[in-house]
Amino acid sequence: MLSKLNTRWHRIVELASRERCLIGASLFRIVAGLTILHLYLANYFQRHYLYGPEGVWPFARSLEEAHRTGAFSIYLLSRSPLYFEVVFHLALLFTALWVIGFRTRLMSLLTYVGLWSLHQRNPVLLDGGDNLVRLALLYGIFAELGAYFSLDADRLRAQRERGGELQRIKGMLHNAAILACAVQVCLVYGVAGLYKVQGELWQNGTALYYITRVGEFTWPGHSDSLSRSVAVVTALTYATVGFQLSFPFLFALNRHTRRLSLAAAFLFHAGIAVMMGLGTFAVFMISVELALIADAEYRSIGAFARRLVSFEAPSLRRLLPARRIQTK
């Protein structure tokens, strides 16, 4: 009896410590990291106005908020402009090192601290994507984000091959972090859907019409044409609510519905990026969802892409000489 229990326990430990979603976790690092770099660089020449000690958001108010809420920001440790410059550029450097996968776990922590501190310095420049990526970054400190497409990849692969007790613990922490990201995404969609069904505009199918009439969230020349179609606006309004309410159940049901829910999520956020101009919000959401795709599924996608390229390559080679002749 004890031997059976011991065997089952070892099997559970083995399954729990087998790292999953390593490719997706690495893609999250790259996509989220590049987006964070974009935020730093897009605001680079306005950094003193937006985040500096004499910026638009008063330094004294940030200190007051930090003391009241217990929040922390490394930018609040000094009012020196030189100190601000050093901290801002170090955070930029740490994020760049995180993207390329140099000492990934350490850079995950430093990138998180830098982004959190920047947000605390000026909390009005936030959206839902910033909140989610900060949580994902916190979970990512315990995940193996450098297993692929990184400078750490070979070293981490060697560690996995050696195995050992420490590697099993790392594997469990990685899987727990991925699971936390999955639960967080399900909560985001589920809670958003529940809030929407209580709203009158979502109930009568007109919510997207009014959203497309807000100047800050429109695509000039295209949002107007969308809002003119009653059928399209109504269908998309109800589809949005249905998608968000069903996502947690579809994601957890089986692998087929999980793939369907993630594909729908990618399309949903691509639509938000294009039609509402919320690019960074959409990319942050997609980056976290990329981490929820299994390694076997990524390999299947890669194999399909290679077959497609090899199938089309002869046709492309036949077309190239013809194009050269036409241009002469």
From TrEMBL:
<feature type="transmembrane region" description="Helical">
    <location>
        <begin position="230"/>
        <end position="253"/>
    </location>
</feature>
<feature type="transmembrane region" description="Helical">
    <location>
        <begin position="21"/>
        <end position="41"/>
    </location>
</feature>
<feature type="domain" description="HTTM-like">
    <location>
        <begin position="17"/>
        <end position="297"/>
    </location>
</feature>
<feature type="transmembrane region" description="Helical">
    <location>
        <begin position="172"/>
        <end position="192"/>
    </location>
</feature>
<keyword id="KW-0812">Transmembrane</keyword>
<dbReference type="InterPro" id="IPR011020">
    <property type="entry name" value="HTTM-like"/>
</dbReference>
<dbReference type="GO" id="GO:0012505">
    <property type="term" value="C:endomembrane system"/>
</dbReference>
<feature type="transmembrane region" description="Helical">
    <location>
        <begin position="260"/>
        <end position="286"/>
    </location>
</feature>
<keyword id="KW-0472">Membrane</keyword>
<protein>
    <submittedName>
        <fullName>Membrane protein / Vitamin K-dependent gamma-carboxylase</fullName>
    </submittedName>
</protein>
<dbReference type="InterPro" id="IPR052964">
    <property type="entry name" value="Sporulation_signal_mat"/>
</dbReference>
<keyword id="KW-1133">Transmembrane helix</keyword>
<feature type="transmembrane region" description="Helical">
    <location>
        <begin position="82"/>
        <end position="102"/>
    </location>
</feature>
